[in-house]
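Quick question, first post here. What does this chain look like in 3D?
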Amino acid sequence: MRTFSVSFFIGTLVLWVLPRLPLFDALFWGSVMGGGGLIGAAWHYRHRQTAILLAGVLLGGVYALWVAGGVRADWLPAAWEGEDILLTGTIADVPERRADGSSFLFDSDTATYQGRLRVAWYAEDAPTLQAGERWQLLIRGKRPNGFMNPNGFDYEQWLFSQRIGGSGYVRESPNNQRLAAAAWWQPNYLRQQLQEKIAAALPNSGMTGLVQGLAIAYTASIPQQQWEILRQTGTIHLLAISGLHITMVAGLGILPVWGIWRLFPGLYLWLPLRVAAGLSGGVLATAYSLLAGFNIPTQRTLIMLLVVMAGLVWRRQVPFSITMSIALLLVLLLDPLASLAVGFWLSFLTVALLAFLGMRQRKLGKASVVWMQLVLSLGTLPLAAGFFGMISLSSPIANLLAIPIVTFVVTPLVLLGMVFTSWWETAATWIWTVAAALLQWLMWVLEWLAALPLSSVYVPLIPLPWLVLALVGFMLLWLPRGVPGRWLGWLLMLPLILYQPPKIAPGAFRLSALDVGQGLASVVQTANHTLVFDTGPKVSDSFDTGELVVLPWLRGQGIRQVDTLIVSHADNDHSGGANALLNALPVTNLLVSSTDILADHHPNLCAAGHSWQWDGVIFTVLHPTVDFPDGKENNRSCVLKIANAAHSVLLTADIERPAEKWLLKRGTALQAEVLLLPHHGSKTSSSPAFIQAVAPTLGIVTSGYRNRFNHPHPSVTQRYEARDIKLLDTAKTGELRLDFPANPAALHWREWRTAKMHLWHRYLIK
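> Answer (accepted):
Ran it through. C-alpha cells below.
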C-alpha cells in the first residue's frame, strides 16, 4: 500500500512537467504497452516492489492526465467569448456579496454547455442569491485567464484545480430568472444559512470573517489587512478546517452513543458499542466535512479519521504509515489535481513532520511543545519560500500563542455556537461574541508581532532544485544523533537565506513589462539601481496590482528599495498600485506629471530635460514640457527614454496624437530600438509620423485579455506591421523581459507565458 500510494502520487506530478496535454490515445496505448512490459518483466524476475512502483507511477500519470483533459474540455467554448449566452444551472457555492453586487460559482447544465463558471452580477439591486438555487442567466463570458508574472499568483492554475472553465458577468435581461429554490439539505445551502447567522450575530465585529472561516471555511469576509497579518506571522493555517475540528465533531457523535449504550446494556447484544460509536462519529464527521467545504486538508483529515475508526470497529490497530498512505491515495483518487493546491503540500507535510517527531520520542518535558513548534516552522520554510516568497521569523512565537487559543478555546466555542443556533439563537450569539472577543485580542497580539522588525523576511524567487535541497537539508538535521553528515543539513538550507538572482552587467539594463491586464507597470534595472515606471490599476481593496503583481515581482528579484518611481499620469490603470508600493518599500525619488498625484508623498514633477545616469545607462525625460498647451491628462503623461552605448527604449505611457505632434514639432530625439506603444495601441495614438521618427524594430503593447477598449486597435497594428516592426503584447506573452546588453549584440527577450507554459494555461493548444 505504501509503495503504491507514493508511486501513484509521483505519477500525478506529470501535471507539473508537461507544457501541453498529449494526445490521449497515444498516451493511453503507449503507457499500457510500455508500462505493462516493464511491470510484467519486474514481476517475472520477482522484483514485485519495483513492479508495484512502476504500476503506481503509470496509473497515477494516466489518471491525472485523463482528468486534466476532461477539465480542459469543460472550458467555455472559444467561439462564445465576448458573446451573450443564455445558460441554466445551479449556484454551486456560497455567493460573495459586495457593494456593487455579488459573485458566485455557476454550474451550467445547459445542453450546449456543461461546466463551471465564476460569475459576477454587477448591480446594486441584484437579487439575493442562495447556494443551491437554479437560475436562468444571460452571461457574457471568457475562458480562464490570469496575470502571468514571476513570483505572482497563478490564477489560471487555481481555476484549473477548481475545475472552473471560465468567468463572466450577468447581462441585464428579462430572461434572468430564478427557476427553483435550493433544497434545505444541500451542504452549501446550510453553509450559507450559518454564514448569514454568524453575520447577523456579529454585525459590528471585525472578527466576523474569522469566525465564519473557522465555522464553515467561508473566508470571503476576511479583510485584506487581517490576511496580511496572518500571512506575516505564519498563522494563516489556523483558518483551515483542521483535524481537531473534525475530531471534535466526531467526538460529539461518539459520546451520546456511549451514554445510551451505558444506560441500556441490552443494546450491546444488538450492536457492539465500538461499532455503534465508530459509525456515529464517522457519519457526523463526514457531514461536517461536507458542511466545511470538503477542501483538501478536510479530505485528508476525514479519511485518516475514518481509517482509524474502521480499525476500532474491526479491533485492529492500523499503523500510521498505512493510514497516511490510504489518505494520500484516496485524496488523489478523489482529485488527481490535488498537488496543484498549496493546501495539499502543507497538509501532508505537517502531518508527516508530526509523525516524524513522534517516532523520535524525544523527551524534553515542558520544552517539548516549543521544540515541536520550532521543528514544524523550520520544516515548512522551503514550502513557504517556494509558494509565498516569504519566511515568517515570528511564526514559532505566534503559533505557540495562537494554536492553543484557537484550537482549545475559540474553535470549541464556534462549534458550540453552531450547535445552539438551530434552537437557541440567543445562546449562539453570546457564544460567538465571546469567540470573536478572544480572536480580537489574539489579532492585536499578532498585529504587534507582525509590526516587529524582521517579523517576516521576503526571499527572492528561488529555483526549484534549491528548494528541494533545502527540504533534504531539513530532514538531515533531524536524523537521530550519531548519523554521519547531519551537519550538511545547515549547508543545504543556506540558499533560502543567501540566494540572490544574477546581477545585471555594468552598462547593460533590463526592461520588464509586467502583466497587469489593461494597464501599465514596468521595471527598469541597471547593475545597481531600480526604476519603476507606473504601477498598474487598483480595482478594489482586494484587487490592487501594486500589491498583487508589482510588489511580489520586486521581492522575487531581491529588490528591497526603489531608486525612482515614475507615475506617468493620474489614470488608475497607471497609478492605482502606487500607494501599495510606496507603503511597502523605500522609494528614494518619486516623479509625477502633476502635483495633485500622490501629494501626500511629496513628489517631484517629471519635466522635459531632466536627465541622470546610472551604471553607464542614461535616463532622459522627454515630456511634458512646461509650455505644453494641452491640458488633457493623457497628453501630459511622462515620456522617458533610456539608452546605453548601443541600445535604447522609449516609454510613452498614454500620450496621444497631440502630444506626439508636439514632440515632433520640438525636434525631440525620439529614435529608439524599442517602443512601448503609446496608450496601449489606441487608435488615438501612434501616428505614422511618430512611428517614422522613433523607427523602432520592436514594439511592446501592454493590454488586457479581450479588453473592452479593443487595444491594440487593428488599424494601429497594421501601421507597425507595414514597417516590419514586430509587436509583442503582454496579454499574450505575460511578463515580458528585455535584456539590453552593453555592447552592440542583439537584445534578448523572454516571454514568461511561453517560458513557464503548463497544461492548465490558455493559448496552450493552437
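The mean pLDDT is 87.
The longest strand covers residues 101-110.
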